[in-house]
Design brief:
Length: about 120
C-alpha cells in the first residue's frame, strides 16, 4: 500500500517562507510525475507546480518566481519551497504522485497540509 505524507505547513506572515515536503511510503516500482496542488476555501483545487521524473518543472502563473518544486528520487520525496508568500497563497496544499507498481499505474494524493499567510 502506498501513502503520501506531507509536512511543513503552518502560519507565516506575508513575505515569509515555508518549505513543504512529501514523502512516498510503500512498495512500488517507480514514481513518475509528482506535483503540488492547493485548495482554498470555496475554490477548486488547482495545480501549483509539477515535476517530472527527469526534473522538468512547470508552475502556475501565480507562483512563478516565488515557488520552487524539487525532488529527491533516492528519498522518494518532493519539496515545495515557497518564498515571498502572500495572503492569497493561504490554502490546504496537497501532494500528488503518479506511481507504477505491481498493480499497474495510478495517481495518489496526500491528506494535505494547511498553509496560512497572514497580512
Amino acid at each position: 500500500q502506498v501513502q503520501l505524507v506531507e509536512s511543513g505547513g503552518g502560519l507565516v506572515q506575508a513575505g515569509g517562507s515555508l518549505r513543504l515536503s512529501c514523502g512516498v511510503l510503500g512498495s512500488m516500482f517507480s514514481i513518475n510525475a509528482m506535483a503540488w496542488y492547493r485548495q482554498a476555501p470555496g475554490k477548486q483545487r488547482e495545480l501549483v507546480a509539477g515535476i517530472t521524473s527527469s526534473g522538468g518543472t512547470n508552475y502556475a502563473d501565480s507562483v512563478k518566481g516565488r515557488f520552487t518544486i524539487s525532488r529527491d528520487n533516492a528519498k522518494n520525496t518532493v519539496y515545495l519551497q515557497m518564498n515571498s508568500l502572500k495572503p492569497e497563497d493561504t490554502a490546504v496544499y496537497y501532494c500528488n504522485a503518479n506511481i507504477r507498481g505491481a498493480w499497474g499505474r495510478d495517481n495518489y494524493w496526500g491528506r494535505g497540509t494547511q498553509v496560512t499567510v497572514s497580512s
